[in-house]
Design goal:
The two termini are about 25 Å apart. The chain has a single domain, classed as P-loop containing nucleotide triphosphate hydrolases (Rossmann fold, 3-Layer(aba) Sandwich). The radius of gyration is 16 Å and the shape is globular. The chain has about 200 residues and is of the alpha/beta class. The chain contains 6 helices and 8 strands; from the N terminus they run βαβαβαββαβαβαβ. α5 links the parallel β6 and β7. The protein has an 8-stranded parallel beta sheet, sandwiched between helices. α5 runs parallel beside α6. About 35% of the residues lie in helices and about 20% in strands.
Length: about 200
């Protein structure tokens, strides 16, 4: 199992973290966010990646592609410069493929998600992978399966791509499970950036 030094950064009322500088310091980052600030931070990442000409692969685990795309457009982001993987829209019926989104049939098929990410990296030239939000996977998967998915994914992609796991507190997920997942993922992380004012996940 890969081990690394874990660096935690806390946001206070009068403090700030330069998110992009922190992202550049590691290949795999855990980013802990409060829900109300999540899209603002994602927009910050997307804008900064656009300036460096790095393309995002955005894995939609908590909201469908159209909701995420609208949120980003409202913040001035050109969503055509990113590629999205949507695991949720299948609940609402068959979706027509688009150039910048891959629609998957289920949020429970980790192998299918992995293949879609690999295709986005190879075919769409994505070099930054954002999981929004990995904690949502606890609704569908056991912690051990998410950790195994992470281990296998990092073994293949860590040296070539930036990988960002966004973590939110979810009322629908037991605190114990969230804490267990976060503890396990920290063992892989190059850095952990905490934007929660009071973190209990």
């Amino acid at each position: 199992m890969l081990l690394s030094i874990i660096c935690e950064f806390f946001i206070f009322m009068n403090g700030a973290v330069d998110l992009i500088k922190e992202i550049e310091k590691g290949q795999f980052l855990l980013i802990l966010l409060e829900e109300e600030a999540c899209m603002d931070k994602i927009a910050e990442i997307a804008k900064s990646m656009a300036r460096t000409e790095k393309k995002l692969c955005y894995v939609c685990l908590s909201k469908p592609y159209m909701d995420v795309a609208n949120d980003l457009r409202n913040r001035g982001i050109d969503v055509k410069k990113s590629h999205f993987i949507d695991v949720l829209s299948s609940h609402y019926g068959k979706r027509r493929p688009t150039d910048n989104c891959t629609f998957l049939d289920s949020p429970t098929d980790l192998a299918d998600i992995r293949v879609a990410i690999s295709n986005a990296i190879k075919e769409k030239k994505c070099s930054v992978v954002v999981f929004d939000t990995i904690s949502t996977m606890l609704i569908y998967q056991e912690t051990s399966k998410i950790v195994r998915f992470t281990h296998d994914f990092l073994s293949e992609e860590r040296e070539r791509n930036k990988i960002l796991y966004l973590v939110l507190k979810h009322d629908s997920i037991p605190v114990e499970e969230s804490e267990r997942l976060l503890s396990d993922l920290k063992m892989f992380a190059d850095r952990t950036i905490n934007f929660n004012k009071k973190s209990d996940i």
